[in-house]
Amino acid sequence: MTGMSRRRKLICALSALATLVVIIPWVHSHRRHEVLVWGSRYHALSVGATYGQVALRHVHLKTDDAHVSFSDPGFQHRSAAAQPTQLGMYASDCSIFWVVGPFSFIVGKQQGGDWQTPGSARWTDHLQELVVPYWFILALTLAPGLLMIYRHIRRPRAGHCAQCGYDLRASPQRCPECGADTTLQVT
Fold first, then answer.
1. Which end of the chain, N or C, is more open, meaning fewer C-beta atoms within 10 Å of its C-beta?
2. Alpha-carbon span 128 to 60, nearest angstrom
3. Rounded Cα–Cα distance for residues 13 and 142 (Å)
4. Which whole-number Å values give the CA distances from 98 to 47, 87, 139, 161, in the listed order?
């Protein structure tokens, strides 16, 4: 087969499509802060994008009181003017608080309600959050396609010189075009 294989073409096409799917919200995130939330009574998963960053959050609400729960179960979408990403908790409330440049990962818990009075409503929020920049996600989506293209370009065709691509059927020991020793490269 002289061109790229079907599998490589498919990987390149999927990589290009995934790249577009990442670029469009990246550009939009500089204008609007978008959040998608799925919640049940005691769990909430959210994906938020703003100023070129994506924040993934999971909150688990633990309580003994049946009246304490998240207010709106189901899917929700919120949109507002773009604003810098705010971490979900302070470092003092976290068992893991890792922030390096635009990347962050936190795990922690906060208590709420009246913990002093017996029988009153009280709860604990357990939070896991990961924040990554869009350029990192873009690099992950571009990598497979670029790798396939690079491997296709760098791979010498059977019977051709690996240095210059010259047809070696007439002289398999040495390339007459560039002079490279091709005894091990001929297929």
1. N
2. 9
3. 10
4. 19, 11, 22, 50
54-74 per-position pLDDT tens digit: 999 999 988 877 777 777 788
| Closest listed residue to residue 63, CA positions, set 126, 128, 124, 127 | 124
Domain boundaries, the chain: 8-139, 156-187
Q: Give φ, ψ of 78 to 5 degrees.
A: -125, 145
Dump the DSSP string for 10-31.
HHHHHHHHHHHHHHHHHHHTTT
Assess whether pLDDT exceeds 70 at residue 18.
Answer: yes
- Model pTM greater than 0.85? no
Q: Coil, strand, or helix at residue 150?
A: helix
- As a whole number, the mean pLDDT across the chain is 84
With both helix axes pointing from N to C terminus, report the angle between 6-28 and 134-154 in degrees, rounded to the nearest 10: 160
Inform me whether the pLDDT recorded for 161 exceeds 70.
yes
